[in-house]
Design brief:
The complex is a heterodimer of chains A (114) and B (110).
Chain A: E1 4-7, E2 10-13, E3 19-25, E4 31-38, E5 42-51, E6 54-57, E7 65-66, E8 76-78, E9 87-94, E10 104-105, E11 109-113
Chain B: E1 3-6, E2 11-14, E3 19-21, E4 23-26, E5 32-38, E6 44-50, E7 56-59, E8 62-65, E9 75-77, E10 86-93, E11 98-100, E12 104-109
Parallel strand pairs in B: 2-12
Antiparallel strand pairs in B: 1-4, 3-9, 5-6, 5-10, 7-8, 8-9, 10-11, 10-12
The chains are: A mainly beta (114), B mainly beta (110).
C-alpha cells in the first residue's frame, strides 16, 4: 500500500531535549516536505526537499533541521525544542516535485513541548 | 506573491443541504488549483484538482471550477452527508511553491 509513515504519532517532551520525527514514503517520490498545522494559521511549510541531498527552507524553518540522505526518508529534527514548537506536524511527498501540488500526507505527529 | 484566501469556518449545515466553500487566489502565471480534505485524526488527502482555466474538478460528489476571470475555485456539493464533516483546504501550485489556505471546518448535522 502506498503510504507516508510518520513516527511517533504522539510525543510529549520537555524544553531542550532533542527529538527526531521520522518520515518514510514507499512511492519512490522525489519531493518531500514538512508542515506544521496550528489553529487559525493553517498549514505552514517548514522545510522541503526536491531530491536526495537537496533541501530548502520553507516559511517557518527556525528551530528545525532536516536531512535527505535517502530518497524514502526525510526526518525532522528539533535540536532544542521550545514550547512554541508544540504543534501538529505533517510529512508529505510528491512524485514530480513541488509544482504538481498532488501531495500525499502522513497521518500527522502531535508534539507537545513542556 | 501567490496567496489563497478561503472562507472562515466553522460552517454548519444540515444533512442534504447544499454546500459552497469559497476560495479565491492571487497568483502570477497559471497555477494549478486543488482542494484537500482532512478527516478527524487523519492527514490531508487530495479531493479534486484543476490545472487550467475553465477546468472542473470533481470527486465524491464535490465539484470546483477554475475561474480565471474571478480568480476563484469554490467548492460545491449538492447534498452533504454527515460523513463529509472535515476540514477543507484550498491550495495552489505555482511557479515556486505549494500554498494552502487556512482551512474551513465543516460540520454536518444529522
Amino acid at each position: 500500500e502506498a503510504q507516508v509513515t510518520q513516527n511517533p504519532r504522539y510525543l510529549i517532551t520537555v524544553t531542550g531535549k532533542k527529538l527526531t520525527v521520522t518520515c518514510s514514503q514507499n512511492m519512490n517520490h522525489e519531493y518531500m516536505s514538512w508542515y506544521r498545522q496550528d489553529p487559525g494559521l493553517g498549514l505552514r511549510q517548514i522545510y522541503y526537499s526536491m531530491n536526495v541531498e537537496v533541501t530548502d527552507k520553507g516559511d517557518v524553518p527556525e528551530g528545525y533541521k532536516v536531512s535527505r540522505k535517502e530518497k524514502r526518508n526525510f526526518p525532522l529534527i528539533l535540536e532544542s525544542p521550545s514550547p512554541n514548537q508544540t504543534s501538529l506536524y505533517f510529512c508529505a511527498s510528491s512524485l514530480r516535485g513541488k509544482l504538481t501540488g498532488e501531495l500525499f500526507f502522513g497521518e500527522g505527529s502531535r508534539l507537545t513541548v513542556l | 506573491g501567490n496567496s489563497v484566501t478561503q472562507m472562515e469556518g466553522p460552517v454548519t449545515l444540515s444533512e442534504e443541504a447544499f454546500l459552497t466553500i469559497n476560495c479565491t487566489y492571487t497568483a502570477t502565471g497559471y497555477p494549478s488549483l486543488f482542494w484537500y480534505v482532512q478527516y478527524p485524526g487523519e492527514g490531508l488527502q487530495l479531493l479534486l484538482k484543476a490545472t487550467k482555466a475553465d477546468d472542473k474538478g470533481s470527486n465524491k460528489g464535490f465539484e470546483a471550477t477554475y475561474r480565471k476571470e474571478t480568480t476563484s475555485f469554490h467548492l460545491e456539493k449538492g447534498s452533504v452527508q454527515v460523513s463529509d464533516s472535515a476540514v477543507y483546504f484550498c491550495a495552489l501550485s505555482g511557479d515556486d511553491k505549494i500554498i494552502f489556505g487556512k482551512g474551513t471546518r465543516l460540520h454536518i448535522l444529522p
